[in-house]
Amino acid sequence: MPRRSFVCRCEDVTLLELDHAIELGLSEVEELKRYTGLGTGPCQGKECMSVLVSHLVRRGLVDPTTVQPFTARPPTEPVTLGALAAGLPAEPES
Amino acid sequence: MDADERLLLRPGPERPAVSVRWDRDRLVTARRGDTVSLALLDQGILETSRSAKYRRPRGPYCLQGDCGTCLVRIDGLPNRRACLTAVREGIRVEPQNRLISGPDPTVLIDTMMRSGMDHHHFMVRPRVVNQIMQGVARNLTGFGTLPDREPEHPARHEIHRPDVLVVGAGPAGRAAWSVLSAAGLDVLWLDRRDRGGLGTEAGPPPEALLPHTGVFGVYPQEQLWAAMSDVPEQAEVLRSIFPRQVLLATGARDPIIPLPNNDRPGVVAARGLLRQLERSGARLRADDVVVIGEGEHAASLAEDLGTEAVAPERVDRIEGNPVEALRLRDGRRSCRLVALAAPPAPAYELARQAGASVAWESGGFAVQRDDDGRCVREPWPVWVAGDMTGYLGERRAAMDGERVARALLRNHPPASPSSPSSRP
Fold first, then answer.
1. DSSP per residue over B275-297, as a string?
2. Distance of residue B12 Cα from the nearest chain A Cα, in angstroms
3. For B7-47, how does the pLDDT look when each residue is reduced to its tens digit (9 = 90+)?
4. Per the CB < 8 Å rule, is B258 touching A15?
5. Apex B78 CA angle, B77 and B82, nearest 5
6. Exposed/middle/buried for B301, CB within 10 Å: 0-12, 13-18, 19+?
7. Which residues of B touch A73 (CB under 8 A)?
8. Does residue B340 contact residue B262 with C-beta atoms inside 8 Å?
9. Which of B:72-131 have CB within 8 Å of A?
10. I need a surface site. Which of A42, B199, B272, B282 has the fewest CB within 10 A?
11. Interface contact A86-B157, CB threshold 8 A
12. A67 touching chain B per CB within 8 A
């Protein structure tokens, strides 16, 4: 197996691939998420967000006083479609 | 496998044996109280799935419900977190996202794409190649297949209108709950973990706690907090919660450290590993585990695990599949587990959905709050305590939970004259 240093294991984004995206001119959290897919797997950034931002801060690409994470929308924990369906109002009788 | 090859030492009183069936036909003997992840680790079963893109072997990492790489199929249900599921007699556990048991031909992708894969340019043209690639990729990266059968009991829906919703039963949440319940408030107290994962030196968590219940979303416009209770072998319960106030104590998460081969099965988070060992009354041989991390945080975790901490700069790479050793710049250290101890990053997601702001502080996004501990005022006051405001550690997190709960009490409005059902 080749040696790889992962930033995001859910979507298999390596440090090399992150730096490649940065070389292409991307530098913001949102842009890098969209280009590499980082943070879009099952963990939704719980493992990789701080790794990404630490890297960007260290490289001087973002201002640590203003940088923000990408939006963490529901569901932040697993939920089944069956459970969500249980919350629907009862169907009107036909 | 010989008892000697087992990873765990079990010095305490012997716990009852529990049989786990792994990957169709392998019987694994676990001990009551173990999670599925720990039972598999004990037997040297570290690989539970393949990664999405390079098809590399993966296993549990964070061991506390965050990372998503311990997802397995349990008793016919896909995408169960092995690290949060306690073993029970006869439980069936199967790997996911693997084409076949044994050698997997798709590992060739990893070898062929040695210098990385940019999916914006990879096999995009000619069109027919792209279509074939898309078809293959979609099949490779799926997460399990549908459940074996419909659930025996359909999911239920419950509506709650508590005085206070408390999320999290770690040190801060537990301290806060004690203050609020002693004051006689109607408190709904939730944690996604099971009771076994929430015990402390003071004993198991109080009965009032609703375990196995993860809050998955906040909807400020509807004034709603949504959770699901997912107790094994019971009907799921969707919970629509309309609280008067909220106290969040969701803790902090353990980020990965970007090092060569940091994805190998056997690389785990030191904090999660320690919690798993505690709940099972188990420990590791000092030779079997090494911590990677810097400073006091890593040193103290290494001490608790009975081993040493190595600074990330000293590490050249992790070797073996599963882990066999750390290749250091100045030598080699054999081990069976590598425990990462990066500074924990606050779990800010729910607070931010509720409208809180976050700021980058020493390696994570910390939830910002006023002096009393409040981060949101409308449509309900939301208070935050413990590690999610910046990593504090267990003792200080508990003190913070108590302090913030007292501030919440001072703020608590008298019972509204209208009946509770008039609220949304």
1. HHHHHHT-EE-GGGEEEE--HHH
2. 33
3. 999 998 999 999 999 998 899 999 999 999 999 999 999 99
4. yes
5. 95
6. buried
7. 217, 353
8. yes
9. 79, 81, 107, 110-111, 114-120
10. B199
11. yes
12. yes
Report yes or no on A54 lying in a domain: yes
Say how far apart CA B260 and CA A2 lie, in whole Å. Answer: 9
Instruction: Using a CB–CB cutoff of 8 Å, tell me whether B69 touches chain A.
Output: yes
The answer to the question of residue A92 being in a domain is no
The radius of gyration computed from the CA coordinates of chain A, to the nearest angstrom, equals 18
Would you mind telling me the total number of residues written for chain B in this entry?
424
Q: Any chain B CB within 8 A of the CB of A89?
A: no
Does A33 map to a domain?
A: yes
pLDDT tens per residue, range A28-76: 999 999 999 999 999 999 999 999 999 999 999 999 999 999 998 999 9
User: What is the distance between the alpha carbons of residues B89 and B384, in angstroms, rounded to a whole number?
Assistant: 39
Are the CB atoms for A15 and B261 separated by under 8 Å?
A: no
CATH number reported for the structural domain that contains residue A28 in this entry: 1.10.10.1100
Q: What is the pLDDT of residues B229-242, one digit of tens each?
A: 999 989 999 999 99
pLDDT tens per residue across span B23-32: 988 999 999 9
Q: Which residues of A fall within a CB distance of 8 Å from B360?
A: 53, 57, 64-65, 67
- The token duo for B321 is 């599949």
The domains of chain B, with CATH numbers, are 3-140 (3.10.20.440), 156-253+345-412 (3.50.50.60)
Give the range of the structural domain holding residue A22, as residue numbers without chain letter: 6-86
Amino acid at A75: P
